[in-house]
Amino acid sequence: MSAEESSLVKKWHIFISYRVRTDADFAEKLADKLRLSLLKGEKQDIRITVFLDKQELRQGHDYMSQLHDALTTSCLFLPIVSEPNYESFLYVQEGDTDNVLWEWECLQNALSLNEENRLTIIPLLIGTNHKINGNMSYTPFNKFGIEIPEVHTSHCGIRTVRETAQLLLKVQGIFINPLDMREKIDLIVE
Question: φ and ψ at 29, to 5 degrees?
Answer without folding.
Answer: -65, -45
